[in-house]
Amino acid sequence: MKRDKILNLSSFLLASLFSYAAGSKLLDVQKFQVELGQSEMLNFIAVPVSFIIPVVEILLAILVFVPGYRLVGMYASFSLMIVFTTYIIIIMNYSYYIPCSCGGVLAKLGWREHLFFNGAFILVALAGILSHHDIDKKDLICKPRQL
């Protein structure tokens, strides 16, 4: 039962994060495009990326709630958070100008706090993956039929 709660909490937290992040980006997509364009790594693909990222975030928010796709959503969420965190580390270490393309409350975080925030959500996704695997193993155990 505890594993179910961990899985449900992980799903809720990830879906909330991705829904909020996608919504804040889509509400002011022009600002998001400008901020992406200020990044040395993304300036040449800022426009397509400004639409791709929110769409991916919305898809992940849905996947982590649909039982048949929840594990895929957890792995994809884990991977996306690793990519976002890697991007932040690269920008912090190799860029002269550090643009913030995050929306809403997240834009108010410093880069170090943002790394901790991302790290926490990497752990949330990992907890969801591990609890999902544990639940699946219990379901695979053959139980004697009752007559």
Automatic annotation (TrEMBL):
One of its GO terms (biological process) is methylamine metabolic process. Its main location: membrane. The chain crosses the membrane at residues 45-66, 78-96, 116-135. Residues 1-21 form the signal peptide. Keywords: Membrane, Signal, Transmembrane, Transmembrane helix. Residues 4-130 form the Methylamine utilisation protein MauE domain. The keyword Transmembrane applies. InterPro entries: Methylamine_util_MauE. It is a multi-pass membrane protein. It is found in: Membrane. It comes from the Bacteria. One of its GO terms (cellular component) is membrane. Pfam families: MauE. This is Methylamine utilisation protein MauE domain-containing protein.
